[in-house]
Write a structure and sequence with these properties.
By secondary structure, this protein is mainly alpha-helical. Helices cover about 65% and strands about 0% of the residues. The radius of gyration is 10 Å and the shape is globular.
Length: about 45
């Protein structure tokens, strides 16, 4: 995901721990696509 965004000129600003929690939450089914989108919107710099 981050590589795709980077290749398309989108900079995502995040702490490693936040990103790890996000990805693990998505993998576990605890984070919905809407929540993922909200996180991305909040972290685009």
């Amino acid at each position: 995901m981050l590589v795709f965004l980077m290749l398309n000129g989108v900079e995502v600003v995040y702490e490693d721990a936040d990103l790890i929690a996000l990805i693990l939450g998505v993998a576990a089914g605890e984070i919905s696509s809407e929540q993922l989108l909200a996180w991305l919107k909040a972290h685009i710099g």
